[in-house]
């Protein structure tokens, strides 16, 4: 199937292009980006221009930041194309609901991807937690924004979500593996004096769960979560890739590769089934955290 990639920036080049190239299902047939290009692939600068010129491309994958994502997704869906959205699937919940309704009306597939759910040990963690009651949980998601989002001012602008951009990955795993729905009960966020979005946030959630997100981590990066249950202790290390049960290794792999090939395989399966997959639950937690947050102004941040 021919696919177009929109927003040729860091994640498009690091993950989407290699995942598409290595898949038997897909052929990268066009890109849409104002500055970004992929060598040997026809490039356009707007979705409208691309869909008009290439009626043979049925699927569009959007790797833009969340704020410009809606207009691009709407243009692709209106042109009758199936659409895959990077996480977070939009800047607001209502935008994604509007896209879901549009996809349904057009009879096309919409897939709100959550790449961290494809990490190596997430499925096993979900299976183990079924039938167990969560007594407490702790999420620590701390990374260096300069390493993972170099120069990306959009991430600290309104709608960029700040530290919730990686934090939502943890919440996408959390909402996927817990046997019972979870909600936010409190939040404190640190916002640099020269920015709109938080550089760190601490959340309280139901079921005794806390989350600590921080973009100022130097050295070793931390993407961990652990849960005490009525039937033992589960830990997921390395962004959901390594599983430990009661302190003993219980599966997974020490790698952060493989998530994007799984997303593209899933998109191919959704197209074969004629189905959509739209899950807003991680983004509901982020929206509620912003609603409840106490806000501290902290020192200005420059890349
Ligand atoms: P990025 O490097 O800044 O790339 C996004 C591209 O989108 C830009 O290169 C730009 O290309 C295009 N764009 C269009 N309108 C834009 C606007 N108003 N502001 C900025 N860029 C605009 O960002 P990224 O790291 O690839 O992240 C994109 C999405 O992927 C985000 O939703 C992020 O959460 C997700 N993601 C990122 C990572 C990561 O590690 N960086 C990991 C997983 C998921 P043109 O200028 O050529 O149009």
TrEMBL record:
One Pfam family this sequence matches: GFO_IDH_MocA
Recorded superkingdom: Bacteria
Protein name as annotated: Gfo/Idh/MocA family oxidoreductase
InterPro entries: Gfo/Idh/MocA-like_OxRdtase_N, Gfo/Idh/MocA_oxidrdct_glycsds, NAD(P)-bd_dom_sf
Signal peptide from the UniProt entry: none
Source organism of the structure: Paracoccus methylovorus
Segments forming domain Gfo/Idh/MocA-like oxidoreductase N-terminal: 1-111
């Amino acid at each position: 199937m021919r696919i177009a990639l929109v927003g040729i920036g860091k994640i498009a080049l690091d993950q989407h292009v290699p995942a598409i190239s290595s898949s038997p299902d897909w052929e990268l047939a066009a890109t849409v980006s104002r500055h970004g290009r992929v060598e040997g692939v026809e490039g356009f600068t707007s979705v409208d221009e691309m869909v008009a010129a290439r009626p043979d491309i049925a699927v569009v994958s959007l790797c833009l930041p969340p704020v410009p994502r809606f207009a691009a997704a709407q243009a692709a869906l209106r042109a009758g194309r199936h659409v895959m959205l990077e996480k977070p699937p939009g800047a607001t919940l209502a935008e994604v609901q509007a896209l879901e309704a549009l996809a349904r009306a057009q009879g096309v597939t919409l897939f709100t991807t959550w790449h961290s759910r494809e990490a190596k040990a997430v499925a096993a963690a979900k299976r183990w937690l079924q039938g167990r009651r969560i007594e407490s949980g702790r999420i620590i998601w701390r990374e260096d924004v300069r390493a993972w989002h170099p120069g990306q001012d959009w991430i600290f602008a309104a709608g960029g979500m700040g530290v919730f951009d990686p934090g939502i990955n943890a919440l996408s795993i959390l909402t996927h593996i817990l046997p019972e729905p979870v909600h936010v009960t409190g939040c404190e966020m640190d916002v640099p004096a020269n920015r709109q979005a938080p550089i760190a946030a601490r959340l309280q959630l139901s079921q005794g769960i806390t989350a600590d997100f921080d973009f100022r981590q130097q050295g070793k990066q931390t993407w961990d979560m652990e849960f005490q249950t009525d039937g033992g202790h589960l830990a997921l290390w390395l962004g959901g890739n390594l599983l430990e049960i009661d302190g003993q290794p219980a599966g997974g792999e020490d790698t952060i590769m493989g998530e994007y090939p799984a997303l593209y395989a899933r998109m191919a399966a959704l197209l074969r089934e004629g189905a959509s997959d739209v899950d807003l639950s991680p983004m509901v937690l982020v929206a509620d955290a912003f609603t409840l947050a106490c806000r501290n102004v902290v020192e200005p941040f420059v890349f």
